[in-house]
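Hi all, posting the design record for the shared folder.

TITLE: backbone redesign
STEP: 1 of 1
STRUCTURE INPUT:
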């Protein structure tokens, strides 16, 4: 009997897949429902299927952010909620793991929106379109969490912010 594919997906779930999600990853651990090499396209998943996709601390390991975002866009329904967590480019978290090959700023995901300065030539770069709902910088360190003026100081002080969390909505016309 084939398992029914849920409408929630966790990309690169490894050991931390939330309940009710279908987990995909290339590592063979207990929470993974489907083993996929996420750097090979297209992923063996149906078009326009998922209503919610979680991409938590996996993009920094993948060689092509644009193609990965295009795959997420392809398999998501119009209006789907996409939640992405990545290391912030000015943190030890971004550079601490030698397997990380990408770094992310507050501007990175604007590339896929109408807010991008690329917008005049957007279709020359990608078909994937999203709307950023919320974007926040997170600090996970116990004491750094309480420092005032982090949003301003992050430009001058290394390692104040650990990660960037983005909530997006898929736009298909």
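Okay, here is what came back for every position:
SEQUENCE:
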């Amino acid at each position: 009997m084939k398992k029914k594919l849920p409408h929630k997906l966790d990309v690169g779930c490894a050991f931390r897949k939330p309940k009710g999600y279908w987990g995909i990853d290339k590592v063979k651990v207990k929470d993974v429902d489907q083993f996929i090499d996420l750097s090979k396209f297209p992923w063996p998943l149906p078009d326009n299927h998922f209503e919610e996709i979680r991409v938590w601390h996996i993009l920094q390991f993948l060689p092509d952010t644009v193609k990965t975002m295009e795959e997420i866009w392809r398999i998501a329904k119009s209006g789907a909620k996409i939640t992405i967590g990545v290391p912030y480019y000015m943190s030890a978290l971004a550079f601490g793991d030698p397997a990380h090959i990408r770094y992310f700023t507050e501007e990175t995901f604007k590339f896929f929106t109408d807010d991008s300065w690329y917008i005049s030539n957007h279709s020359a770069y990608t078909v994937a379109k999203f709307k950023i709902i919320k974007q926040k910088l997170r600090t996970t360190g116990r004491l750094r969490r309480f420092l005032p003026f982090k949003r301003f100081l992050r430009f001058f002080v290394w390692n104040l912010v650990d990660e960037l969390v983005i909530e997006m909505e898929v736009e298909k016309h």
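COMMENT: The beta strands are 8-11, 22-25, 34-35, 50-56, 76-87, 130-138, 163-170.
Let me know if anyone wants the other runs.
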